[in-house]
Write a structure and sequence with these properties.
Jelly Rolls; 17 strands
Length: 275
């Protein structure tokens, strides 16, 4: 089942997204059809973006595209680590904007702490969202030991149960994509989908619809998988990150750091609630 927005395209066709800081404020928008193929923006980091005027999107919706940098209503993780299998410290400087896209970068950490040698990039919404359609246009990293992702998440840090819905690209084989979800910390729902193309070679659109009784995943607008068992219920943040693993070689392969920095690219992100 393909969900079609009735209201948002009319509102989004007015103007292109303008750049703004990651301070509190509404997210700026543009129509997907008007997304530019190129941009004259110069390379910059999330730390150096200056605020410009933005458009207001409908309440309950979310949109971000990166022709002019960081949109309001979004933020970067900075200065901490997830620990466990994540062998990176999140750095705001690992989120950059260049050629109309956002880059999430894995690199050697310039100031490593706690024995963690690498840095990674993570970008997320400030607000929480529930049932609806979540979409991203992205190109993942192709490299052993890495993950490039698009997902929803909330957990104990938000005073919530751990609920999560995932689209994950394993850099060891970017001709596949892994879908997964967690409900109140219970996972074990991994599914591998054969794409029929190499996702690292070009931008494609990936999406999932989060319903009360099911999750449906899409690739380039085509439904490819669904799940109906123990579906998450807690409103969550929209998140993207790029990281390398440790202690999970059986899943990701050992991390190959010979070609760092490594970059996952994102053109735009959108959430449309169900009516």
């Amino acid at each position: 089942m393909k969900y079609t927005t009735k209201i948002l395209p009319l509102l989004l066709s007015v103007a292109m997204l303008t750049a703004c800081e990651s301070d509190n404020g509404a997210t700026a928008v543009t129509d997907e059809a008007s997304l530019p193929a190129e941009s004259s923006i110069t390379t910059t980091t999330a730390e150096s973006i200056e605020a410009e005027p933005e458009m207001i999107i409908p309440e309950g919706h979310a949109y971000a595209e990166f022709t002019k940098g960081m949109p309001q209503g979004w933020e970067c993780a900075d200065g901490w680590t997830n620990g466990s299998m994540f062998n990176v410290t999140w750095r705001k400087s690992n989120v950059t904007f260049n050629d109309g896209n956002m880059q999430l970068i894995i690199d050697n950490d310039k100031t490593p702490t706690g024995g963690i040698p690498y840095s990674g990039g993570e970008f997320r919404s400030k607000d929480f969202y529930g049932y609806g359609r979540y979409e991203v246009c992205m190109k993942p990293i192709k490299n052993d030991g890495t993950v490039s992702s698009f997902f929803t998440y909330t957990g104990p840090s938000d005073n919530n149960p751990w609920d999560e819905i995932d689209i994950e690209f394993l850099g060891k084989d970017t001709t596949i994509v892994q879908f997964n979800y967690f409900t109140d910390s219970r996972g074990g729902h991994e599914y591998i989908h054969q794409l029929g193309f190499d996702a690292a070679e070009d931008f494609h659109t990936y999406a999932f619809e989060w319903h009360e009784d099911k999750i449906v995943w899409f690739v380039d607008g085509v439904e490819v998988y669904s799940a109906t068992d123990n579906i998450p219920v807690t409103e969550s943040k929209i998140m993207m990150n790029a990281w390398c693993g440790k202690g999970v070689d059986g899943w990701l392969n050992a991390f190959d750091d010979t070609t760092v920095p490594l970059t996952a690219e994102y053109q735009w992100v959108r959430f449309t609630p169900f009516e």
